[in-house]
Design goal:
- With 199 residues, the chain is α+β, with helices and mostly antiparallel strands.
- It has one domain.
- The chain is built from 5 helices and 9 strands; from the N terminus they run ααββαββββαββαβ.
- The strands form 2 sheets. A 6-stranded antiparallel β-sheet has the order 6-5-4-3-8-9. It has a 3-stranded antiparallel β-sheet with strand order 1-2-7.
- A hairpin with a 7-residue loop joins strand 3 and strand 4.
- The longest helix has 18 residues.
- The relative contact order is 0.20.
- About 11% of the residues have low confidence.
């Protein structure tokens, strides 16, 4: 029996295997990629003439991160927000760039998960409930009235990431070489037109 030509050519067989592997990677990205997904983001007018960010994210902690939390290692999730105005004659103008961090921790004595940001701290009985709060960024004041021009259209961008820079030094070093600590979203972009709502 004569074998097909591809099986008689070692180089051809290697090429076919490489192409097949590439196709599998392209067709099943969810099996390979881990990260944070941005589900939605919008800017809402506040009572002082500025705008608040409302954004929803979706992610799961892998086994290593969940184990770290349960052993008392705090995790920090940082949300970044940027606002830019396009200029045809030069680079985009960055109008706003701000961030906020949320701390997730576990108290073994009380068996309580805690979510804290600034001076606010909330307690939860389950990790699921604590993560639900972290995944929904709401009423975060990101734009002052004097930072934008009414009637202008801007590009708003938001992302969330596990911020290993805020962790204790030994864990920062470990996180550099450990993929399990690499958890972040891509930038999510959406248009924003400044409307005067303070009248």
């Amino acid at each position: 029996m004569t074998l097909p030509r591809i099986f008689r050519c070692p180089n051809c067989l290697q090429l076919a295997a490489t192409v097949l592997l590439a196709l599998l990677l392209c067709c099943a990205p969810s099996a390979w990629a881990e990260g944070i997904a941005v589900q939605q983001a919008s800017l809402e007018a506040d009572s002082i003439g500025g705008w608040n960010l409302d954004a929803r994210f979706d992610f799961q902690l892998n086994a290593s991160l969940e184990d770290a939390v349960n052993k008392g290692v705090p995790l920090y999730f940082t949300t970044n927000f940027e606002l830019k105005r396009g200029r045809w004659y030069w680079f985009d103008e960055q109008t706003v760039s701000t961030s906020q961090s949320i701390r997730l921790s576990f108290q073994p004595l009380t068996r309580e998960y805690r979510v804290s940001s600034g001076g606010l701290q909330l307690g939860f009985d389950s990790l699921h409930d604590a993560l639900a709060v972290i995944k929904h960024v709401t009423s975060w004041h990101v734009i002052d009235r004097n930072q934008v021009q009414i009637g202008e259209t801007y590009t708003a961008s938001v992302r969330m990431r596990l911020d290993t820079d805020l962790m204790p030094k030994p864990f920062q070093i470990d996180a550099v070489n450990n993929r399990d600590w690499n958890l972040s979203s891509e930038w999510w972009h959406f248009p924003f037109t400044a409307v005067d709502h303070a009248k």
